[in-house]
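Archive entry: two folds, one per protein. Generate the first.
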Amino acid sequence: MSNENNARNNSPAAAGGPNADSAGDRVLHLTNEVCPYTFVKSKLALEEAAPGSILEIHLGNSESASNVPRSIELEGHEVLGIDQPEAGHWVVTVKRA
């Protein structure tokens, strides 16, 4: 993982702080991660979030874009959308149960 991505992952936006850069309550940048780490980190972020809050998960590969939403739904959370704003970049929006 590059230093730039480390900085993004540790930014207030990635931690759900006041500088979140999207419509979600919290943003998680996992574009350089692969399964199963993408799901594990997503699950941990959802466990820390308040019920009803929104988590926006940025993913960088099609396997994660397929597996993470399915696994999150199996955990009881609601997948609000899966978007692909550009090639190699998916955004999964989740509402915590």
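Generate the second and append.
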Amino acid sequence: MILAQVLGTVVSTRKDAGLVGLKLLLVREVDGAFKPAGNYVVAADAVGAGSDELVMVAQGSSARMTEVSREKPVDAVIVGIVDAIEMAGKDVYLKRSGVVS
């Protein structure tokens, strides 16, 4: 899994029938300081994520293991919304206030 930030929504009126009904979001991986890093990825949303939220993204064959994405033609799926991250006993990210460190 990777940590990523939701940047926006992807709308596609013409797509494979397996994607009909899926909410698609544009995400970008973040680094250890929660700054943008890596490529942009379109991910199916399995948890109701929103813009600017920090999320966990599963990719590859693992992306097809959620109830939302099972048997669907997806390579990335949002599997969690991050509420807090603790490192070495210290809160470094809290959803309600952003980056702490």
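Annotation attached to the second fold: The chain has no helices and eight strands. The chain has one domain: 2-99.
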